Amino acid sequence: MYLNNSKQVVIKIGSSLLIDNNKKIRKKWLIDFAKDIELLTKNKKKVIIVSSGAIALGCKKLNINKKNLKLDKSQAVASIGQIELMNLFNEIFKKRKLNLSQILLTLEDTEIRRRAINAKRTFDNLFDLGFIPLVNENDSIATSEIKYGDNDRLASRVAQISGSDCLILFSDVDGLFDSNPKVNRNAKLINNVKDINNKIENYISKNVSEHGTGGMKTKIEAARICQISGCYMAIANGLINRPIKNIISKNICTWFLPKISKLDARKKWIISSISPKGELVIDDGAIQALKKGKSLLATGIKNINGKFSKGDHVKILDKNMKEHARGLSSFNSEEILRIKGQHSSKISEILGYVSKSEVIHKDDMVEI
């Protein structure tokens, strides 16, 4: 059983699990959830909780409608609601002697390597101190351009940078079905997914989760990140009481199995990026060179899309716009525009200063 064998677990819960349709806090559910977390910690498992709900609780406290909120107002509401969220968890968890800490992350905290490493150190130190990190996106300062947009992907990145073995995403259904279980009573639950292929993609379009088809799509995107990070991921029903205990005893959920990967931590971080800043379109010769483990040189670059800085994540595409790899650029986009198609020996002459000869070094690149 994948959860039983995991030493470090990330659990993501959405705001709909904390607040019902009548805007009432589901306190009984949270009390039972705390029992589940206690069960895991007693079994010597390290636990990270990723929880939504700051804006919803802020709206409840202020008695305003979330639908009418503009971005700048929602940031202030999130700041108010985050205290409510922590107080709610803390009140219930301390009765079971579970110590909580708060970590608020922005997209850049996982996309910038140095900050991702710092985040991992914080998680490790909190575990050493006997605390459970409660993570949320920092909605108070994140703008639409630098947001995860959903906590499914945030949770998958937290699982990846923290080196966790297992991620559980709670939904309003038991997992991924071959058709919509709310419409088709004979819909079949898919227990294990090894590859997210066209067949699985078709199932996604037939499923409706807590926010429509988009909700299930983001969970599949999270599964992709987990699969290439060596992390098991489950989509399970969170609406029932004791949802973790239910997974352990009945295993009613969909498990996404990790792909065997020899990628080191740095390359895992590169390939798991969810916000590449640009694209490099390369020729067939450069594609063949990449397959042989070579670096990407300027001479093989045909076109460039987007504006990005040195060190940013970029996608590497062939002439048919199919992604072959992604990596960290040694040059900014303006520099690459000037040197694309040129031999490496001419780069210094073109730019007017000495620079690297590789646009993306092989050590900074991962094939898809």
Structure summary:
This protein is α/β, with parallel strands linked by helices and 368 residues long. It has helices spanning 15-18, 27-42, 54-62, 71-93, 107-111, 113-128, 151-161, 198-206, 213-227, 243-250, 265-271, 284-291, 333-339, 347-351, and strands at residues 8-13, 46-51, 100-105, 132-137, 166-171, 192-193, 210-212, 232-237, 254-256, 278-282, 296-297, 301-305, 313-317, 323-328, 358-360, 365-367. A hairpin with a 5-residue loop joins strand 13 and strand 14.
Describe the 3D structure.
- This protein is of the alpha/beta class.
- It has two domains: 8-267, Carbamate kinase (3-Layer(aba) Sandwich); 276-367, PUA domain (Archaeosine Trna-guanine Transglycosylase, Chain: A, domain 4), CATH 2.30.130.10.
- 39% of the residues lie in helices and 20% in strands.
- The chain has helices at residues 15-18, 27-42, 54-62, 71-93, 107-111, 113-128, 151-161, 198-206, 213-227, 243-250, 265-271, 284-291, 333-339, 347-351, and strands at 8-13, 46-51, 100-105, 132-137, 166-171, 192-193, 210-212, 232-237, 254-256, 278-282, 296-297, 301-305, 313-317, 323-328, 358-360, 365-367.
- An eight-stranded mixed β-sheet has the order 3-4-2-1-5-8-9-6, sandwiched between helices. A five-stranded mixed β-sheet has the order 12-10-13-14-16, sandwiched between helices.
- A hairpin with a 5-residue loop joins β13 and β14 (323-328).
- The longest helix is centred in the N-terminal third of the chain and has 23 residues, at 71-93.
- The two termini are 29 Å apart.
- Mean pLDDT is 89; it is low at 208-214.
